[in-house]
Specification:
The protein is mostly helical. It has two domains: about 50 residues, no CATH class; about 240 residues, MetI-like fold (Orthogonal Bundle), CATH 1.10.3720.10. It has 13 helices and two strands; from the N terminus they run αββαααααααααααα. The longest helix is centred in the first third of the chain and has 42 residues.
Length: about 300
Amino acid sequence: MTDISARPLRPARRRSSKWAQKLAPYFFLAPFLALFIVFLVVPLFYALQLSFFRETMVGGIRFVGLDNYGKALTDQKFWDGVLLLLRYGLFQLPVMLGAALLLALILDSGMLWARAFFRLGLFLPYAVPTVIAALIWGYLYGPSFGPMTQVADYFGLPRPDLFNAQTMLYAIANISIWEHVGYFMIIYFAALQAIPADFEEAAVVSGARAWQYVIYVKLPLIRGTILVTVIFATIGALQLFAEPYLLEALAPAVITSSYTPNIYAYNLAFVNQDYNYSAAISFVLGAVVAVVSYVFQLVSTRREGK
């Protein structure tokens, strides 16, 4: 016979299973959330707290409110660094993303032999750590010992000087382009691969040429992907730090302690021991990055709507 007394337990089991299903996502997210809070949220709140204080010779650390932010907004060194990064982005972003898109279109066309080999080879520089990449290119750029100098000496040509004030920014941009072209190429290539083959067949039937299919079909379909990569690349450009910091020893007269806002904040904190003002500079830079990214996204969205 069936045990009747066991029947009332079934609703309870169902309720417990429902609760388990609801709590399961949070259980799997818990390790990430714990690390996110400990290593990002808590340091951000601590840095924000530091930015409201100032260490004085007489009174020690005291609360100054928004004084550090007011000082940052009128700091010429900080804004010179921001303008330098805007110049850097106007050159680096179009070249890097344009080359990545062109390479992705070539790979997606299917006309390239050994496509997997070229895809891996182009992506490989992204796997090289930024420190190693900067050291490699610093050796290549070397005005007294680099290969470029040796080749120039061999042919009796003047030695290239890439560490002067006029060319340093483009030399740094070249390092970043070399590092990240493959990364963005993979993103574009994945987006292009997601386009249904029916679109190409319809374009061929309608008599469209290959370049017309690319301009009027492929590029509009991956417009959202292009917008996202532009925003990410803009944020990365405004946070430039590693490459100029590592090249500073080779060009100390050009790469100063306030060459970029991140280098400026780093030197304020770890050289001048001014952690409070450095925190304020960092948050003002974060606000600049957010505003630039939002304005670009807003303009792009309005143009797309029109």
